[in-house]
Amino acid sequence: MDPETNRPSEAFDSKHFTTNAGTPVSDNQNSLSVGSRGPLLLEDYHLLEKLAQFDRERIPERVVHARGVAAKGYFETTADISSLSCADVFRGVGVRTPIAARLSTVIHSRHSPETLRDPRGFSVKFYTREGNWDLVGNNMPVFFVRDGIKFPDLIHSLKPNPRTEMQEWWRILDFLSHHPESLHVLTWLLDDVGIPKSYRHMPGFGVHTFRLLNAEGKSTYVKFHWIPKCGDVALLDDDAKKVTGEDWLNATHDLINAIDDGDFPEWTLCIQTMDPAKEFDYDFDPLDASKIWPESEFPLQEVGRMVLDRNVDNHFLENEQIAFSPSLIVPGIYFSDDKLLQSRLFSYADTQRYRIGANYLQLPINAPRNEHRDGHHDGAMNTMHRHKEVNYHPSRFDDLQHAKEFPTPQDEPSGQRVKQPIEKQNDFKQPGDRFRSFDAERQDRFVNRVAEKLNGPRVTPEIKKIWLDWWAQCDENLGKRLADMVKVDC
Protein backbone atom coordinates (compact mmCIF):
# COMPACT_ATOMS: atom_id res chain seq x y z
CA MET A 1 0.00 0.00 0.00
CA ASP A 2 1.39 3.39 -0.99
CA PRO A 3 0.62 5.78 1.90
CA GLU A 4 0.77 8.77 -0.45
CA THR A 5 -2.15 7.49 -2.53
CA ASN A 6 -3.98 5.18 -0.13
CA ARG A 7 -5.35 6.64 3.07
CA PRO A 8 -6.18 4.39 6.07
CA SER A 9 -9.20 2.29 5.14
CA GLU A 10 -10.66 -1.16 5.73
CA ALA A 11 -9.93 -1.80 2.07
CA PHE A 12 -6.27 -2.19 3.04
CA ASP A 13 -6.78 -4.37 6.14
CA SER A 14 -4.11 -6.98 6.73
CA LYS A 15 -4.98 -10.58 7.54
CA HIS A 16 -3.09 -10.48 10.82
CA PHE A 17 -3.28 -8.19 13.88
CA THR A 18 -0.98 -5.16 14.00
CA THR A 19 -0.31 -2.07 16.09
CA ASN A 20 -1.37 1.37 14.87
CA ALA A 21 2.07 1.64 13.31
CA GLY A 22 1.57 -1.60 11.35
CA THR A 23 3.86 -3.78 13.47
CA PRO A 24 2.68 -7.41 13.73
CA VAL A 25 1.02 -8.43 17.00
CA SER A 26 1.49 -12.09 17.83
CA ASP A 27 -0.78 -12.16 20.91
CA ASN A 28 -3.73 -9.84 21.52
CA GLN A 29 -5.09 -11.88 24.45
CA ASN A 30 -2.26 -11.82 26.99
CA SER A 31 -0.24 -8.89 28.35
CA LEU A 32 3.56 -9.12 28.60
CA SER A 33 4.34 -10.00 32.19
CA VAL A 34 6.97 -11.42 34.52
CA GLY A 35 5.75 -14.95 34.64
CA SER A 36 2.16 -15.91 33.96
CA ARG A 37 0.87 -14.17 37.15
CA GLY A 38 2.58 -10.77 36.63
CA PRO A 39 3.43 -8.05 37.30
CA LEU A 40 3.13 -6.42 33.86
CA LEU A 41 6.02 -4.90 31.98
CA LEU A 42 5.92 -1.25 30.87
CA GLU A 43 7.72 -2.25 27.68
CA ASP A 44 4.53 -3.91 26.38
CA TYR A 45 3.88 -1.18 23.82
CA HIS A 46 0.87 -2.95 22.33
CA LEU A 47 -0.87 -3.00 25.74
CA LEU A 48 -0.10 0.67 26.38
CA GLU A 49 -1.23 1.72 22.90
CA LYS A 50 -4.44 -0.31 23.19
CA LEU A 51 -5.38 1.22 26.56
CA ALA A 52 -4.32 4.75 25.61
CA GLN A 53 -6.32 4.58 22.38
CA PHE A 54 -9.35 3.27 24.25
CA ASP A 55 -9.07 6.10 26.78
CA ARG A 56 -9.36 8.59 23.92
CA GLU A 57 -12.14 7.03 21.86
CA ARG A 58 -14.69 9.69 22.76
CA ILE A 59 -14.82 13.28 21.63
CA PRO A 60 -16.88 15.91 23.48
CA GLU A 61 -20.54 15.41 22.73
CA ARG A 62 -22.42 18.24 21.11
CA VAL A 63 -23.69 20.86 23.54
CA VAL A 64 -26.97 20.74 21.62
CA HIS A 65 -28.18 18.09 19.15
CA ALA A 66 -26.18 15.36 20.91
CA ARG A 67 -28.77 12.62 20.26
CA GLY A 68 -29.17 12.10 16.54
CA VAL A 69 -28.82 9.92 13.47
CA ALA A 70 -27.22 10.62 10.10
CA ALA A 71 -27.91 9.20 6.66
CA LYS A 72 -26.80 9.85 3.09
CA GLY A 73 -28.61 10.28 -0.18
CA TYR A 74 -29.28 12.86 -2.84
CA PHE A 75 -31.14 16.06 -3.57
CA GLU A 76 -32.90 16.37 -6.92
CA THR A 77 -33.95 19.73 -8.34
CA THR A 78 -37.54 19.57 -9.61
CA ALA A 79 -38.22 23.19 -10.60
CA ASP A 80 -36.31 25.84 -12.53
CA ILE A 81 -35.44 28.71 -10.17
CA SER A 82 -32.51 30.06 -12.19
CA SER A 83 -34.27 33.43 -12.18
CA LEU A 84 -33.83 33.44 -8.40
CA SER A 85 -30.51 31.70 -7.79
CA CYS A 86 -27.38 30.75 -9.68
CA ALA A 87 -26.50 28.11 -7.06
CA ASP A 88 -25.02 24.95 -8.58
CA VAL A 89 -27.48 22.76 -6.69
CA PHE A 90 -30.36 24.43 -8.58
CA ARG A 91 -28.66 24.53 -12.00
CA GLY A 92 -31.28 22.45 -13.79
CA VAL A 93 -34.35 20.31 -13.39
CA GLY A 94 -33.36 16.68 -12.75
CA VAL A 95 -29.90 17.53 -11.43
CA ARG A 96 -28.95 15.36 -8.46
CA THR A 97 -26.53 16.50 -5.75
CA PRO A 98 -25.13 14.11 -3.12
CA ILE A 99 -26.12 15.01 0.43
CA ALA A 100 -25.72 13.91 4.02
CA ALA A 101 -28.34 14.73 6.64
CA ARG A 102 -28.48 14.54 10.40
CA LEU A 103 -31.76 14.53 12.32
CA SER A 104 -31.65 14.97 16.07
CA THR A 105 -33.18 15.98 19.34
CA VAL A 106 -31.80 19.25 20.72
CA ILE A 107 -31.47 19.73 24.45
CA HIS A 108 -30.70 16.43 26.14
CA SER A 109 -27.60 14.24 26.15
CA ARG A 110 -26.46 11.70 23.58
CA HIS A 111 -28.20 8.74 25.23
CA SER A 112 -31.48 10.48 26.04
CA PRO A 113 -34.87 9.18 24.82
CA GLU A 114 -36.14 10.37 21.45
CA THR A 115 -39.69 10.65 22.77
CA LEU A 116 -39.17 13.73 24.94
CA ARG A 117 -40.97 17.00 24.22
CA ASP A 118 -38.07 18.81 22.65
CA PRO A 119 -37.26 20.64 19.42
CA ARG A 120 -35.63 18.52 16.72
CA GLY A 121 -32.65 19.39 14.55
CA PHE A 122 -32.86 19.07 10.77
CA SER A 123 -29.53 19.64 9.02
CA VAL A 124 -28.52 18.85 5.43
CA LYS A 125 -25.08 19.03 3.82
CA PHE A 126 -25.14 19.47 0.03
CA TYR A 127 -21.90 18.40 -1.70
CA THR A 128 -22.16 20.75 -4.68
CA ARG A 129 -19.68 21.32 -7.51
CA GLU A 130 -18.90 24.72 -5.99
CA GLY A 131 -18.38 23.62 -2.42
CA ASN A 132 -20.51 22.45 0.48
CA TRP A 133 -23.76 24.14 1.44
CA ASP A 134 -25.08 23.42 4.93
CA LEU A 135 -28.77 24.11 5.50
CA VAL A 136 -28.96 23.94 9.30
CA GLY A 137 -32.42 24.10 10.82
CA ASN A 138 -35.05 22.65 13.14
CA ASN A 139 -38.43 20.94 12.92
CA MET A 140 -40.13 24.18 14.02
CA PRO A 141 -40.13 27.28 11.80
CA VAL A 142 -39.48 29.77 14.61
CA PHE A 143 -37.03 30.11 17.48
CA PHE A 144 -37.09 31.13 21.15
CA VAL A 145 -35.01 34.31 20.85
CA ARG A 146 -34.06 36.69 18.05
CA ASP A 147 -30.55 37.76 19.08
CA GLY A 148 -27.63 35.35 19.34
CA ILE A 149 -26.25 37.04 22.45
CA LYS A 150 -29.12 35.33 24.32
CA PHE A 151 -28.40 31.86 22.95
CA PRO A 152 -26.02 30.56 25.67
CA ASP A 153 -28.44 31.65 28.41
CA LEU A 154 -31.38 30.11 26.57
CA ILE A 155 -29.62 26.75 26.32
CA HIS A 156 -28.53 26.93 29.97
CA SER A 157 -32.19 27.41 30.97
CA LEU A 158 -33.37 24.52 28.79
CA LYS A 159 -30.58 22.20 29.95
CA PRO A 160 -30.80 20.30 33.24
CA ASN A 161 -30.46 22.19 36.51
CA PRO A 162 -26.70 22.31 37.29
CA ARG A 163 -27.42 21.21 40.87
CA THR A 164 -29.84 18.34 40.20
CA GLU A 165 -29.09 17.40 36.54
CA MET A 166 -32.84 17.49 35.84
CA GLN A 167 -34.63 19.65 33.30
CA GLU A 168 -37.02 21.83 35.27
CA TRP A 169 -39.68 24.05 33.74
CA TRP A 170 -39.51 26.72 36.45
CA ARG A 171 -36.07 27.59 35.10
CA ILE A 172 -37.32 27.66 31.49
CA LEU A 173 -40.33 29.81 32.35
CA ASP A 174 -38.17 32.13 34.43
CA PHE A 175 -35.73 32.83 31.61
CA LEU A 176 -38.36 33.05 28.89
CA SER A 177 -40.46 35.42 31.04
CA HIS A 178 -37.95 38.06 29.93
CA HIS A 179 -38.49 37.21 26.26
CA PRO A 180 -42.04 37.48 24.91
CA GLU A 181 -40.80 36.51 21.43
CA SER A 182 -40.65 32.94 22.83
CA LEU A 183 -44.46 32.72 22.93
CA HIS A 184 -44.58 31.73 19.28
CA VAL A 185 -42.22 28.75 19.52
CA LEU A 186 -44.10 27.55 22.61
CA THR A 187 -47.23 27.25 20.47
CA TRP A 188 -45.23 24.61 18.59
CA LEU A 189 -43.28 22.97 21.41
CA LEU A 190 -46.34 22.59 23.70
CA ASP A 191 -48.65 21.80 20.80
CA ASP A 192 -49.43 18.31 19.52
CA VAL A 193 -46.44 18.53 17.14
CA GLY A 194 -43.99 18.78 20.07
CA ILE A 195 -43.08 15.06 19.92
CA PRO A 196 -42.62 13.82 16.32
CA LYS A 197 -43.59 10.20 15.68
CA SER A 198 -40.23 9.66 13.99
CA TYR A 199 -37.65 11.60 12.04
CA ARG A 200 -39.33 10.44 8.82
CA HIS A 201 -42.57 12.03 9.97
CA MET A 202 -41.32 15.49 10.82
CA PRO A 203 -40.85 18.62 8.71
CA GLY A 204 -37.74 20.76 8.62
CA PHE A 205 -37.23 24.50 8.42
CA GLY A 206 -34.25 26.72 7.75
CA VAL A 207 -35.79 29.01 10.43
CA HIS A 208 -33.79 32.04 9.31
CA THR A 209 -34.26 34.30 6.32
CA PHE A 210 -31.54 33.82 3.72
CA ARG A 211 -30.92 35.42 0.34
CA LEU A 212 -30.98 33.91 -3.13
CA LEU A 213 -28.86 35.63 -5.77
CA ASN A 214 -29.22 35.07 -9.51
CA ALA A 215 -26.51 35.42 -12.14
CA GLU A 216 -27.27 39.13 -12.55
CA GLY A 217 -26.88 39.71 -8.81
CA LYS A 218 -30.56 40.26 -8.05
CA SER A 219 -31.25 39.46 -4.40
CA THR A 220 -34.40 37.74 -3.09
CA TYR A 221 -35.19 36.89 0.52
CA VAL A 222 -35.96 33.20 1.03
CA LYS A 223 -37.13 30.77 3.69
CA PHE A 224 -36.61 27.01 3.31
CA HIS A 225 -39.13 24.29 4.21
CA TRP A 226 -38.76 20.49 4.15
CA ILE A 227 -42.10 18.67 3.78
CA PRO A 228 -42.02 14.95 4.73
CA LYS A 229 -43.47 12.53 2.19
CA CYS A 230 -44.62 10.34 5.09
CA GLY A 231 -46.70 13.20 6.44
CA ASP A 232 -46.25 15.41 9.49
CA VAL A 233 -47.20 13.00 12.29
CA ALA A 234 -46.59 13.40 16.02
CA LEU A 235 -47.16 11.46 19.23
CA LEU A 236 -49.63 12.63 21.84
CA ASP A 237 -48.42 12.53 25.44
CA ASP A 238 -49.81 9.11 26.38
CA ASP A 239 -48.60 7.59 23.11
CA ALA A 240 -45.11 8.98 23.72
CA LYS A 241 -44.98 7.40 27.18
CA LYS A 242 -45.95 4.03 25.72
CA VAL A 243 -43.36 4.25 22.95
CA THR A 244 -40.69 5.25 25.47
CA GLY A 245 -41.33 2.08 27.45
CA GLU A 246 -41.03 -0.06 24.32
CA ASP A 247 -38.19 1.65 22.42
CA TRP A 248 -36.76 4.95 23.63
CA LEU A 249 -34.57 5.14 20.50
CA ASN A 250 -37.58 4.69 18.26
CA ALA A 251 -36.75 7.50 15.84
CA THR A 252 -33.21 6.29 15.16
CA HIS A 253 -34.33 2.69 14.74
CA ASP A 254 -37.20 3.76 12.48
CA LEU A 255 -34.93 5.71 10.12
CA ILE A 256 -32.19 3.07 9.92
CA ASN A 257 -34.67 0.22 9.45
CA ALA A 258 -36.65 2.08 6.78
CA ILE A 259 -33.51 2.70 4.73
CA ASP A 260 -32.29 -0.89 5.19
CA ASP A 261 -35.70 -2.11 4.00
CA GLY A 262 -35.61 0.09 0.90
CA ASP A 263 -38.40 2.37 2.13
CA PHE A 264 -36.33 5.47 1.55
CA PRO A 265 -37.41 8.59 3.49
CA GLU A 266 -38.15 11.57 1.28
CA TRP A 267 -38.83 15.26 1.78
CA THR A 268 -39.92 17.97 -0.63
CA LEU A 269 -37.94 21.21 -0.45
CA CYS A 270 -40.14 24.28 -0.76
CA ILE A 271 -39.24 27.93 -0.56
CA GLN A 272 -41.00 31.15 0.30
CA THR A 273 -39.65 34.28 -1.36
CA MET A 274 -39.93 37.99 -0.65
CA ASP A 275 -38.75 41.11 -2.45
CA PRO A 276 -36.27 42.86 -0.08
CA ALA A 277 -37.65 46.21 -1.28
CA LYS A 278 -40.90 45.35 0.52
CA GLU A 279 -39.47 44.06 3.80
CA PHE A 280 -40.83 47.02 5.79
CA ASP A 281 -44.37 46.67 4.42
CA TYR A 282 -45.54 44.03 6.88
CA ASP A 283 -46.64 43.99 10.52
CA PHE A 284 -43.64 41.80 11.42
CA ASP A 285 -39.91 41.97 10.72
CA PRO A 286 -39.12 39.37 7.99
CA LEU A 287 -35.66 38.86 9.47
CA ASP A 288 -37.03 38.02 12.93
CA ALA A 289 -36.41 34.31 13.64
CA SER A 290 -39.40 34.24 16.00
CA LYS A 291 -41.80 34.95 13.12
CA ILE A 292 -43.16 32.98 10.19
CA TRP A 293 -44.06 34.38 6.79
CA PRO A 294 -47.80 33.66 6.39
CA GLU A 295 -48.30 31.20 3.54
CA SER A 296 -51.40 33.13 2.47
CA GLU A 297 -49.09 35.99 1.49
CA PHE A 298 -45.96 33.99 0.69
CA PRO A 299 -47.02 30.65 -0.82
CA LEU A 300 -44.73 27.63 -0.79
CA GLN A 301 -42.95 26.90 -4.06
CA GLU A 302 -41.61 23.39 -4.63
CA VAL A 303 -37.99 23.36 -5.83
CA GLY A 304 -36.72 19.83 -5.18
CA ARG A 305 -36.75 16.65 -3.18
CA MET A 306 -34.34 14.93 -0.81
CA VAL A 307 -34.08 11.13 -0.64
CA LEU A 308 -32.11 9.32 2.07
CA ASP A 309 -31.14 5.97 0.56
CA ARG A 310 -28.01 4.94 2.48
CA ASN A 311 -27.25 4.58 6.16
CA VAL A 312 -23.86 5.71 7.37
CA ASP A 313 -21.00 3.23 7.18
CA ASN A 314 -19.83 3.97 10.70
CA HIS A 315 -21.72 5.82 13.45
CA PHE A 316 -18.71 7.60 14.91
CA LEU A 317 -17.07 8.61 11.64
CA GLU A 318 -20.19 9.87 9.90
CA ASN A 319 -22.66 10.73 12.66
CA GLU A 320 -20.61 11.85 15.65
CA GLN A 321 -18.08 13.61 13.43
CA ILE A 322 -20.39 15.11 10.83
CA ALA A 323 -20.33 18.86 11.38
CA PHE A 324 -22.73 21.53 10.15
CA SER A 325 -22.53 25.29 10.11
CA PRO A 326 -24.86 27.84 8.49
CA SER A 327 -21.72 29.78 7.53
CA LEU A 328 -21.07 27.20 4.78
CA ILE A 329 -22.82 28.60 1.74
CA VAL A 330 -22.17 28.54 -2.00
CA PRO A 331 -22.47 31.12 -4.80
CA GLY A 332 -26.14 31.94 -5.34
CA ILE A 333 -27.04 31.69 -1.64
CA TYR A 334 -26.20 34.30 0.98
CA PHE A 335 -27.03 35.42 4.51
CA SER A 336 -29.57 37.97 5.63
CA ASP A 337 -28.97 40.48 8.43
CA ASP A 338 -30.93 38.35 10.93
CA LYS A 339 -28.98 38.90 14.17
CA LEU A 340 -29.51 35.34 15.40
CA LEU A 341 -28.23 33.94 12.11
CA GLN A 342 -25.26 36.29 12.12
CA SER A 343 -24.11 34.97 15.50
CA ARG A 344 -24.56 31.36 14.41
CA LEU A 345 -22.20 31.94 11.49
CA PHE A 346 -19.35 32.05 13.98
CA SER A 347 -20.59 29.83 16.78
CA TYR A 348 -21.42 26.68 14.82
CA ALA A 349 -18.08 26.40 13.04
CA ASP A 350 -16.24 27.33 16.23
CA THR A 351 -17.90 24.59 18.26
CA GLN A 352 -16.78 22.03 15.66
CA ARG A 353 -13.19 23.27 15.89
CA TYR A 354 -13.36 22.71 19.64
CA ARG A 355 -15.29 19.45 19.54
CA ILE A 356 -13.50 17.73 16.65
CA GLY A 357 -10.45 19.83 15.83
CA ALA A 358 -9.21 22.67 13.67
CA ASN A 359 -9.09 20.41 10.62
CA TYR A 360 -12.59 18.95 10.97
CA LEU A 361 -13.39 19.87 7.35
CA GLN A 362 -10.74 17.38 6.18
CA LEU A 363 -12.73 14.45 7.55
CA PRO A 364 -14.34 12.56 4.64
CA ILE A 365 -17.94 13.19 5.77
CA ASN A 366 -17.26 16.94 6.02
CA ALA A 367 -14.84 17.47 3.15
CA PRO A 368 -16.02 19.01 -0.13
CA ARG A 369 -16.31 16.68 -3.12
CA ASN A 370 -15.14 19.27 -5.65
CA GLU A 371 -11.52 20.23 -6.34
CA HIS A 372 -10.47 22.72 -3.73
CA ARG A 373 -7.42 24.45 -2.34
CA ASP A 374 -7.19 26.68 0.68
CA GLY A 375 -4.41 28.50 2.47
CA HIS A 376 -4.83 26.70 5.79
CA HIS A 377 -1.85 24.66 6.91
CA ASP A 378 -0.79 22.34 9.69
CA GLY A 379 -2.68 22.09 12.99
CA ALA A 380 -3.63 18.99 14.94
CA MET A 381 -4.51 15.93 12.85
CA ASN A 382 -3.94 17.62 9.51
CA THR A 383 -4.12 14.84 6.92
CA MET A 384 -3.82 16.92 3.74
CA HIS A 385 -0.92 15.52 1.71
CA ARG A 386 1.27 18.39 0.48
CA HIS A 387 4.67 18.57 -1.15
CA LYS A 388 4.78 22.15 -2.48
CA GLU A 389 7.31 24.59 -1.06
CA VAL A 390 5.13 27.70 -1.21
CA ASN A 391 2.57 27.91 1.61
CA TYR A 392 1.61 31.56 1.20
CA HIS A 393 -0.29 33.67 -1.31
CA PRO A 394 0.37 35.46 -3.59
CA SER A 395 3.62 34.09 -4.97
CA ARG A 396 5.49 34.28 -8.25
CA PHE A 397 6.47 30.64 -7.77
CA ASP A 398 2.90 29.37 -7.56
CA ASP A 399 0.30 30.56 -10.04
CA LEU A 400 -2.69 30.14 -7.71
CA GLN A 401 -5.51 32.30 -9.01
CA HIS A 402 -8.52 33.85 -7.36
CA ALA A 403 -11.83 32.22 -8.26
CA LYS A 404 -14.17 33.95 -10.66
CA GLU A 405 -16.16 36.62 -8.87
CA PHE A 406 -19.71 35.57 -8.01
CA PRO A 407 -22.78 37.63 -7.09
CA THR A 408 -23.05 39.02 -3.57
CA PRO A 409 -25.60 41.45 -2.09
CA GLN A 410 -24.98 45.03 -3.17
CA ASP A 411 -27.14 46.85 -0.63
CA GLU A 412 -25.23 49.13 1.75
CA PRO A 413 -25.75 48.61 5.50
CA SER A 414 -26.11 51.89 7.35
CA GLY A 415 -26.82 53.09 10.88
CA GLN A 416 -25.21 53.91 14.18
CA ARG A 417 -23.41 51.44 16.42
CA VAL A 418 -26.09 50.44 18.91
CA LYS A 419 -27.05 47.62 21.23
CA GLN A 420 -30.80 47.67 20.74
CA PRO A 421 -33.63 45.23 20.06
CA ILE A 422 -35.42 45.38 16.72
CA GLU A 423 -38.19 47.97 16.47
CA LYS A 424 -41.02 45.88 15.00
CA GLN A 425 -41.45 43.08 17.57
CA ASN A 426 -45.20 42.32 17.49
CA ASP A 427 -44.74 39.24 19.72
CA PHE A 428 -48.41 38.40 20.40
CA LYS A 429 -50.20 38.30 17.04
CA GLN A 430 -48.68 35.20 15.44
CA PRO A 431 -48.93 33.02 18.59
CA GLY A 432 -52.59 34.02 18.86
CA ASP A 433 -53.22 33.27 15.20
CA ARG A 434 -51.68 29.85 15.60
CA PHE A 435 -53.70 29.01 18.72
CA ARG A 436 -56.93 30.04 16.97
CA SER A 437 -56.05 27.74 14.04
CA PHE A 438 -56.26 24.67 16.34
CA ASP A 439 -59.50 22.73 16.57
CA ALA A 440 -61.24 22.60 19.96
CA GLU A 441 -59.63 19.37 21.17
CA ARG A 442 -56.18 20.52 20.13
CA GLN A 443 -56.72 23.80 21.96
CA ASP A 444 -57.72 21.86 25.08
CA ARG A 445 -54.52 19.81 24.99
CA PHE A 446 -52.40 22.92 24.47
CA VAL A 447 -54.07 24.79 27.36
CA ASN A 448 -53.61 21.79 29.66
CA ARG A 449 -49.89 21.53 28.84
CA VAL A 450 -49.29 25.24 29.41
CA ALA A 451 -51.26 25.20 32.68
CA GLU A 452 -49.33 22.16 33.89
CA LYS A 453 -46.03 23.97 33.39
CA LEU A 454 -47.26 27.16 35.04
CA ASN A 455 -48.58 25.23 38.05
CA GLY A 456 -45.16 23.79 38.76
CA PRO A 457 -44.21 24.05 42.44
CA ARG A 458 -41.32 26.48 41.91
CA VAL A 459 -42.97 28.82 39.42
CA THR A 460 -43.43 32.05 41.38
CA PRO A 461 -46.60 34.18 41.38
CA GLU A 462 -44.69 36.93 39.59
CA ILE A 463 -43.70 34.61 36.75
CA LYS A 464 -47.22 33.16 36.52
CA LYS A 465 -48.74 36.64 36.23
CA ILE A 466 -46.32 37.58 33.44
CA TRP A 467 -47.25 34.49 31.42
CA LEU A 468 -50.98 34.83 32.04
CA ASP A 469 -50.82 38.43 30.84
CA TRP A 470 -48.83 37.49 27.75
CA TRP A 471 -51.09 34.59 26.78
CA ALA A 472 -54.12 36.85 27.22
CA GLN A 473 -52.55 39.34 24.83
CA CYS A 474 -52.14 36.51 22.32
CA ASP A 475 -55.76 35.41 22.64
CA GLU A 476 -58.38 36.61 25.12
CA ASN A 477 -60.08 33.20 25.40
CA LEU A 478 -56.72 31.48 25.93
CA GLY A 479 -55.88 33.95 28.69
CA LYS A 480 -59.21 33.39 30.46
CA ARG A 481 -58.92 29.62 30.33
CA LEU A 482 -55.40 29.67 31.73
CA ALA A 483 -56.40 32.14 34.46
CA ASP A 484 -59.05 29.65 35.60
CA MET A 485 -56.56 26.78 35.70
CA VAL A 486 -53.39 28.39 37.05
CA LYS A 487 -53.16 28.98 40.79
CA VAL A 488 -51.60 32.36 41.55
CA ASP A 489 -50.93 32.60 45.29
CA CYS A 490 -50.59 36.14 46.64
Query: Roughly what fraction of the amino acids lie in strands?
Result: 15-25%
* Largest β-sheet summary: 10 strands, antiparallel
Q: Total number of β-strand segments?
A: 10
SS-based class:
alpha+beta
The low-pLDDT segments are none
Mean pLDDT: 94
Radius of gyration: 26 Å
Which shape, going by the Cα principal axes? globular
The span between the termini is 78 Å
Task: Give the SSE string.
Answer: HEEEEHHHEEEHHEEHEHHHHH
> DSSP helix count?
12
Share of helix, binned: 25-40%
Give your account of this protein's structure.
- Helix content is 26%, strand content 16%.
- Strands 1, 2, 3, 4, 5, 6, 7, 8, 9 and 10 form a 10-stranded antiparallel sheet that branches.
- The termini are far apart.
- The chain has 12 helices and 10 strands.
- The relative contact order is 0.13.
- Helix 2 packs antiparallel against helix 3, helix 4 packs parallel to helix 9 and helix 11 packs antiparallel against helix 12.
- With 490 residues, the protein is α+β, with helices and mostly antiparallel strands.
What is the gist of this entry?
Strands 1, 2, 3, 4, 5, 6, 7, 8, 9 and 10 form a 10-stranded antiparallel β-sheet that branches.
Write the layout of secondary structure elements.
Blueprint: H1 45-55, E1 68-77, E2 96-105, E3 120-128, E4 131-138, H2 151-158, H3 169-176, H4 182-189, E5 204-205, E6 210-213, E7 219-228, H5 237-246, H6 250-260, E8 266-274, E9 301-311, H7 315-320, E10 333-335, H8 339-355, H9 429-437, H10 440-454, H11 461-474, H12 476-485
Antiparallel strand pairs: 1-2, 1-9, 2-3, 3-4, 5-7, 6-7, 6-10, 7-8, 8-9
